[in-house]
């Protein structure tokens, strides 16, 4: 059975070393990235659930809440793609700050959505 070709990280045919170009070696940085990613995921998941559950006394779900939740989920896709690229080592270290900024802005958007859902 033939093995899959090794990933060359942007230098096909010339790579003798299969290590990523921009590897972050510090353990603390990986922990911060994991914590930020998990917290952002939990806040987004809670917001999406609350978009359906928020109208407690009403018979039907407000379409504006669902639209807001869909917009938040669509804003999470670039963050997910950038995170995958960063973890593979295909993206420079400076983009870590961009990932943290996007995660922070998505979290603030979720807070705004929750305030909107509960008419605060």
Automatic annotation (TrEMBL):
TM annotation in the entry: 31-54, 66-86, 98-118
Entry keyword annotation includes Transmembrane: yes
InterPro entries per the UniProt record, alphabetical: DUF2678
Protein name: Transmembrane protein 243
Keywords linked to the UniProt accession: Membrane, Transmembrane, Transmembrane helix
């Amino acid at each position: 059975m033939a093995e899959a070709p090794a990933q060359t990280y942007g230098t096909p045919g010339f790579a003798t070393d299969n290590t990523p170009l921009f590897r972050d070696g510090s353990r603390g940085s990986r922990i911060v990235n994991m914590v930020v990613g998990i917290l952002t995921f939990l806040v987004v998941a809670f917001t999406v659930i609350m978009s359906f559950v928020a109208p407690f006394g009403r018979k039907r779900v407000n379409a504006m809440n669902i639209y807001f939740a869909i917009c938040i989920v669509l804003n999470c896709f670039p963050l997910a793609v950038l995170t995958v690229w960063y973890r593979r080592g295909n993206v420079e270290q400076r983009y870590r700050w961009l990932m943290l900024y996007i995660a922070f802005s998505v979290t603030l958007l979720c807070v705004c959505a929750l305030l909107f859902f509960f008419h605060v």
